[in-house]
Design brief:
Layout lengths: L5 E4 H21 L6 H12 L5 H20 L7 H21 L6 H22 L7 H13 L3 H24 L7 H24 E4 L6 E2 L9
Parallel strand pairs: 1-2
Antiparallel strand pairs: 2-3
Length: 228
């Protein structure tokens, strides 16, 4: 049965991503349950080497991911260029949201709300980002890697999250000599983010069509994603 879809400009979706995903990271960081697996790497680096802010380390980390993709593709990808600009805005918004999120009371009930709100916002933001180009490099990496390897997105996403988690554990023990920024929520994200994103993506694909304001061409949601 055909259903009428909501048409959303890609530029508007990109703005939503730049507002929501950094907020999601800060909310999860605020909770005592551990930050998302991807953000745990720049978090541990910003703690061990505070010469750069958390947001700046995010930019450095995500830039390395884009470079890695181009190396794996063995080609220069012009479409990734603007992603570097998006990445700068992403890192800055992390620092902006962090200025007020850190002022929230440190109580268990609020921490639970912060974690799950951040998790859901992150998954929703990833789904929006997966339908856009340019997008944030941490969303580009598993999406395009799944296409390169001809694997399902949720499998690549889970593997990527577990790799980030392992990297954070090693850096924490080697540099800080104790675990930092890792909790039960981090492990929850490692195993559940890919699955949750795939479920939300299917819903968005059935109800939303994206298009560019500058070029009136429709972008089919998730056309490059292999679902479970």
């Amino acid at each position: 049965m055909n259903t009428r879809k909501f048409h959303l400009p890609g530029e508007a979706a990109l703005l939503i991503v730049l507002l929501l995903n950094p907020l999601a990271i800060d909310l999860m960081s605020k909770s005592v349950f551990g930050i998302s697996t991807i953000s745990s790497v720049p978090l541990i680096l910003s703690t061990a080497f505070p010469v750069f802010s958390f947001g700046t380390w995010n930019y450095i980390f995500q830039t390395l991911l884009v470079i890695t993709l181009m190396v794996l593709k063995r080609s220069f990808c012009p479409g990734y260029l603007f992603s570097f600009v998006v990445d700068i805005g992403f890192g800055k918004m992390i620092d902006v949201h962090n200025t007020w999120v850190t002022l929230l009371p440190n109580v268990l009930s609020l921490n639970v709300v912060c974690f799950f709100t951040g998790f859901l916002l992150m998954c929703f933001g990833i789904c929006l980002a997966n339908n856009l180009l340019p997008i944030v490099p941490t969303d580009i990496f598993p999406r395009d890697l799944s296409e390169l390897l001809h694997k399902k997105y949720n499998q690549i996403k889970t593997t990527f999250d577990l790799t980030c988690l392992t990297t954070t554990v090693i850096l924490s023990l080697v540099i800080l000599h104790h675990l930092y920024g890792i909790g039960i929520g981090t492990f929850f994200c490692a195993f559940m983010t890919g699955r949750t994103v795939s479920l939300v993506q299917k819903f968005i694909g059935n109800h939303v069509e994206f298009y560019r304001l500058m070029k009136k061409e429709m972008v089919m949601p998730g056309k490059k994603m292999r679902h479970a």
